[in-house]
Amino acid sequence: MVKVMWVSVIAFAAAILLVTVAKIPVAEGVNCSPTELTPCAGAMMSSSPPSATCCAKLREQTPCFCGYMRNPSLRPYVSSPNAKKVATSCKIASPSC
């Protein structure tokens, strides 16, 4: 009887643990590489609208924008009027760094 009770307690604890773990969001790593924004080059260099691929890459790289802004080599590209226009077209907010 005691053995059956312990098995039930362990099974219940395992079920609670599985439910709790299932609700924990898994953070995906972002590869902060400006080359990931290559699909946006055409839109940033001209007045053409950004492609869906460009917008997807911008969304993916959003956590990296502040790092790009701190880099003197990248800042002119990230903060250019065309870059802001592309971000606005993709409905991506400007970073607050």
From TrEMBL:
User: What is the annotated signal peptide range for this record?
Assistant: 1-29
SUPFAM superfamilies in alphabetical order: Bifunctional inhibitor/lipid-transfer protein/seed storage 2S albumin (SSF47699)
GO:BP terms for this protein? lipid transport
- The Bifunctional inhibitor/plant lipid transfer protein/seed storage helical domain covers which part of the protein? 32-97
Which key words tag this protein in UniProt?
Lipid-binding, Signal, Transport
Q: Mind listing the GO molecular function terms for this protein?
A: lipid binding
Coiled-coil residues are: none
Q: Does the keyword Thylakoid apply?
A: no
Q: Which InterPro entries match?
A: Bifun_inhib/LTP/seed_sf, Bifunc_inhib/LTP/seed_store, nsLTP2
The protein's matches in PANTHER family, at most eight in alphabetical order, are given as: BIFUNCTIONAL INHIBITOR/LIPID-TRANSFER PROTEIN/SEED STORAGE 2S ALBUMIN SUPERFAMILY PROTEIN (PTHR33214), BIFUNCTIONAL INHIBITOR_PLANT LIPID TRANSFER PROTEIN_SEED STORAGE HELICAL DOMAIN-CONTAINING PROTEIN (PTHR33214:SF46)
Which protein is depicted?
A: Bifunctional inhibitor/plant lipid transfer protein/seed storage helical domain-containing protein
Q: Which organism is it from?
A: Microthlaspi erraticum
